[in-house]
Fold:
Amino acid sequence: MPVSTKISDFIRRSSWIRKMFEEGAKLKAQHGPEKVFDFSLGNPNLEPSPAMKKAIANAASDTARGIHGYMPNAGFPSVRAAVAKKIREDEGVEIDQNWIVMTVGAGGALNVVLKTFLNDGDEVVVPKPFFVEYVFYVDNHGGKAVQVPTKGDFSLDLNAMEQAINPNTAAVLINSPNNPTGKVYSQQDIDGLARLLERKSKEIGRTIVLISDEPYRAITYDRVTVPSILKAYTSSVVVTSFSKDLSLAGERLGYVALNPSMDGAGAAMEGLVLCNRILGFVNAPAIMQRAVQGALRDVVDIGVYKRRRDLLYSALTSFGYECVKPEGAFYLFPKSPLEDDVAFVGLLQKKLILTVPGSGFGGPGYFRIAYCVSDETIQGSLAGFEEAIKEV
Ligand SMILES: Cc1ncc(COP(=O)(O)O)c(C=O)c1O
Structure:
């Protein structure tokens, strides 16, 4: 078979994604799409704001010469300057355009960062549950993801992280607000992690890089705020995108922000720019860069996601589901009423409700509900959720 052994194995390991997709398509063909309650994908269902749409139309209809050509691999300087200004305003950190690389989404940004920092055999500590692609991304660049548990409320377990760190540890990769749990790590947790990494870096004689994946930073509820990683830890790098907060997932735009105070920041920046090029991205999409430049704050209406979180959370807990209330992102990660989360997700499927087993995120015994769907989908699904827990 021409497909490599490793990729054949990856296909098998990620098969539940394909399975959900195939089962969903089958159910929709059989019963009609409106009868199937699909909570399986983190694809925002809110439209980009009217201002954002206008900015895209304006950027696309610009007739100036050369604007569709290559540009510096890091992206348009004016766009990077706008991004840096926003970070300065939001996080109170000193950063300018020289420390920003525009990327093909957060997924592209993570690959650029991992390629820049990992040597073959290096380890990346990842609190679980986690965004399922991390394991593959780390492997892409010769590394190994080391999964560590979090506490019962999904907050960071610093003791577990400490035990996982060893001389092979190149980086720690965190994601807050978290997919799949909706957890936002507190300032205390982040400060504790920063002190731990400073101490362990000295102990093992190498700088541990803290990579913070933040595509949901703007999506938080009840005035919860996301601590600044750049402020908390010197050897830090933030990756993010406009996929979720501006609802531009298909347009593939994100960025890397490197901490200017990192030891060897200049070389790291050169590495990031080179990796953006040699991974084949070359540069982030030109029209979209110009479109977001003036619309960075045109975030979709977070109140709609909050309403959906409240509706689903209060309904499910009233039916008896156990669930940590999400503080951000648009996912709910309840405990599976059956120990076997795959079996419970199968039972929900019989009620035409599509969710994803926690096992796929390194969180067996739970299941993920992506509530970036319409109010009607949520309302329509509630009877099925109630029946399913009663049946078990
Ligand atoms: C935690 C997390 N990181 C990264 C990504 C990738 O985002 P992008 O579409 O910007 O590549 C996602 C997408 O769902 C995500 O949930």
